[in-house]
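Researcher: Structure prediction, please.
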Amino acid sequence: MGLQTVSTEESIALPARPNQSRVRHIEWTKRIPDEEWTIYHGAINVLRSTGRPFMLAGAFSLASYTGLWRNTKDLDFYVLPRDRDAIVEVLTRAGFTDYYGTLPYVRHWIYRAHKGDCIVDIIWAMANQRAQVDAEWFERAPQIQVRGEMLHVVPAEELLWCKLYVLQKERCDWGDVINLIHSLGGDLDWEHLVARLGDDLPLLSALLNVYCWLCPGTVLELPPRLRDVLPHCGAPGAPQLDKQHVDWLDSRPWFITPEKKQETPE
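Model: Predicted structure follows.
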């Protein structure tokens, strides 16, 4: 399947959705250093001044769903492709500088602005060009309050969809995806995700095979086309979490369980 785009009207309504309860984790917001938050808060105000929709992505969005906190010293926002130039312009006027002069990067999906050591990423497409951000991302986005700022968060399904493709020699986001599934349990719209993936569904099947090996007793409300290739998921009598399997992959505390929230080292 090629690049997905959706034509949109000039304004997008951002209603509260039934998935609002998903973003119940806010304790991580207290761990943002004050000096970093000052810069991020300035960027949020700049984006608000444009009247264009934007939503949290990256490490902040993952923390909102899982509680898993990593201080990456960057703040990611998803925007519509049509809005990127206007947003880049106002960030520049507000004193944010293109990070390209410090470290060159590929520009076809992201603009990296920075002040000091803090980076603000403006993202409108997947890095692999599989898809662009479209209006439905915003229509499905729940909200979270971060230090008094009410912000929309990328929907869990779209977050999973994006991270599923990050399986590189230098970096793999499947650990984040596994934590996302485990934290949300049955509160994922699998049919929507299947529709998003299209012909790439085998990639999700592969990830779910790993997940079910780690959590053999967890019951997921999967659509038939996934259930048929994952007969061992939710096996009766199996443990909710096989700690030995988790430790075989990495003995460091990267997996979050409902009983004991664990945080990865910064």
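Model: Confidence is low (pLDDT under 50) at residues 1-11, 259-266.
Researcher: Thanks, that helps.
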